[in-house]
TrEMBL record:
Listed name of the protein: Alpha-ketoglutarate-dependent dioxygenase AlkB
Highest taxon in the source lineage: Bacteria
Organism: Algoriphagus marincola
Signal peptide (residue range): none
Fe2OG dioxygenase domain location: 103-201
Keyword annotations: Dioxygenase, Oxidoreductase
Amino acid sequence: MMANLFPFDTKNLLPHSGEVLYFDSLFELKKADEYFKILKDDVSWKHEAIWMFGKKVMQPRLTALYGEEGVSYSYSGITMEPVPWSKTLLEIKGKVEELAEARFSHVLLNFYRDGQDSMGWHRDNEASLGPEPLIASVSFGVPRRFQFRNYVDKKEKLQIELGHGSLLLMKGACQDHWEHQIPKSKKVSGERINLTFRLIR
Ligand SMILES: O=C(O)CCC(=O)C(=O)O
Ligand SMILES: [Fe+2]
């Protein structure tokens, strides 16, 4: 059996109804700096519109989708066609798969240019992800607040900070019961890159 490389004392951050595990150092500082620079320069970043409440609006961030050819990914009224894996993204995927003990077919990338870029409340619960999807989220660049709120009781909230070189796993019933977001922040001025690895069928 493969050893579980995830630190054994990592505790679930959710109080109930799903699992969220945070590991602050998937990559050491030098490696994380290197990945940030390569991804910023080499990823085919796009500024795309989505549909929200019947209106077409620009997303407050840049995005990209990489992964297995022939499988597209649809959310918020748009469909993204994946760009084939790059060497760097395959390297990061390998490390994440080892730690998460899982396999991923795609990665959705987000580039937050400053504190005014954000991602609103949502669940990653598209049918193409299957039931109880495992989502592995890797962050590089300035730390940003990541918030959860209970989908039914919207007053039940919690938040953590996602640091440079960190890994966050969302598992089990998490996407059924909890929404998440990256809020805008006046205090943040730097850039951040986030990668969410998914298995899309
Ligand atoms: O930038 C983040 O940490 C969140 C990304 C996210 O929730 C998503 O891509 O679905
Ligand atoms: Fe998400």
